[in-house]
Protein: Transposase
Organism: Streptomyces beihaiensis
Amino acid sequence: MSKKSNTSKRYSAEFKRDAVALALSSEKTVTEVARDLGVSPEGLRNWVKQAKIDRGEGPAGALTTAEREELTRLRRKVREQEATIEVLGKATAFFAQQKTR
């Protein structure tokens, strides 16, 4: 999964939802709709793809937006807990060494 560059724009969930609805209901291509809205065609394609997944129309195993957010949150929590465990391990070793002196 690639990260966004600092120069990329952030769009509200409402804007994305409306853009997807327009892309799906329009006679125009996704590229034409994207151009009309001033967004990248690839970005709009990704929004449409994710909207379909969220509606249960995606490929088997594709993560919904809610599942992606939960996965991100859980990965962050694991990193925090790993850091805590590392600190506790070092503290335990330090105090064990102090006790033997």
Observations:
- The two ends are 50 Å apart (CA to CA).
